[in-house]
């Protein structure tokens, strides 16, 4: 295995790791969004989906562990690469306008680190329930008398706070910038490039980034502007 | 034309260096950029001052010796043009022009605008060749090479090794240079036997020299005086992955 580890430590190998893990995270981001968009289908749909995920039990923990591993490798390798890049140019240019570099490419470390901080906040908010403890405790009683976690009301109560909603919107814009560069850059990094498709791939990446931003911010904005409200009888 | 130059002056590798301001009066728009610097230097010499050191050789855009980051762009504002082929008509009367050396840890400054690019030579020594047996020379044209491959190999071989790609890259990465050399051989039959080994060795040598990693900014492609395309970088990534997957990582 030494040969593999050695190759993954080369400049190309490290980029390979960032690209593969970034791709996995991208898959998660898209699935996560599609699942959450069920908030527009109402309380029952979202809460049933959440209960289904919980019911996966062991499988859910395997998925979480895998996701965590991808995240850690992505972040650690990306930070290492960024430090090496800085060291490769010890003296900066006095004049440095750039020719065709993009804001999204330039900002990868900053947008990545903000997404990292946001993910911690997001987990503290909705998974660990540290931000709004009361809303996190809400349950829904079904017709057969059983109860389940009222994810819908928890999310709506959260996004009814303007500051929290705006924080989510801002974080999604930065994630969108990250994905705008990352989701075409990985094609080149993994050597899947073809010069004839390159412009189409870049356009598709920009489209995907827009979809992810718009899809995700539609939820806090819908709550903030009152299109989605707390169910009757639920107060926080 | 009357110009103001802000030129990087550095007495030696260990000097901190600084930008100094010089007047360049009566510049003809028909002068090349290097001729303009020659005139400034003649005046400096007449005044008993130390002339500005810069690299050059052929002055016809083929040797790769000239350099200079001009207003933040390697080889200056004109695309697909080396500094020696850049003419002063690309500038306007009254312009201020900043002139800096290639900046990279792997290209240490020797003096003023002259940098040591021997890290490129060591990358070539690591694998930028095709080994051949001595003996009778094979017949010319005995080995058939498809037109597409010949053209692509030639596009890659157009690299003059000037280092503008490194200078332009925010990460001082040498990917475009190495990828061009790898692509040059990868498209020719003579390059096949050592293909995997060459790719891995050149990448390892590039890393050891302290160049940065590629983030697909594509600044290199825009700055390259020979318009080497970034597709070669993707192709090298592919070749590297294949070489490692085949266990030929050296
Ligand atoms: C869910 C969140 C994330 C997704 C979907 C994601 C996705 C990606 C993708 C697809 C790439 C492109 C890889 C390539 O160029 O080949 C990338 C690159 C990068 N990511 Fe992320 N990433 C995420 C989170 C993060 C975080 C938290 C950081 C924090 C440091 C980060 C830092 C970077 C950096 C610095 C790069 C550029 C690496 C380079 O090209 O040199 N990313 N990301
Ligand atoms: S001096 Fe030879 S390429 Fe410019």
Q: What does this protein look like?
A:
- The complex is a heterodimer of chains A (236) and B (250).
- Chain A has 236 residues and is mostly helical.
- Helices cover 72% and strands 3% of the residues of chain A.
- In chain A, strands 1-2 form a two-stranded antiparallel ribbon.
- In chain A, a hairpin with a 5-residue loop joins strand 1 (139-141) and strand 2 (147-149).
- The longest helix of chain A is centred in the first third of the chain and has 31 residues, at 58-88.
- Chain B is 34% helix and 11% strand.
- Chain B has a five-stranded mixed β-sheet with strand order 2-1-5-3-4. A two-stranded antiparallel ribbon of chain B has the order 6-7.
- In chain B, helix 5 (175-186) crosses helix 8.
- The interface between A and B is large, with 45 and 52 residues.
- Bound molecules: protoporphyrin IX containing FE and FE2/S2 (inorganic) cluster (FES).
- FE2/S2 (inorganic) cluster (FES) is lined by residues 56-59, 61-66, 82, 84 of chain B.
Quick gist of this model?
The complex is a heterodimer of chains A (236) and B (250). By secondary structure, chain A is mainly alpha-helical.
CATH superfamily grouping of chain A: Fumarate reductase/succinate dehydrogenase, transmembrane subunit
User: Which CATH architecture of the largest domain in chain B?
Assistant: Orthogonal Bundle
What is the tally of beta strands of chain A?
A: 2
Could you tell me the number of beta strands of chain B? 7
Strand order of the largest sheet of chain B: 2-1-5-3-4
First-to-last CA distance of chain A: 55 Å
H/E element order of chain A: HHHHHHHEEHHH
Helix content of chain A: over 70%
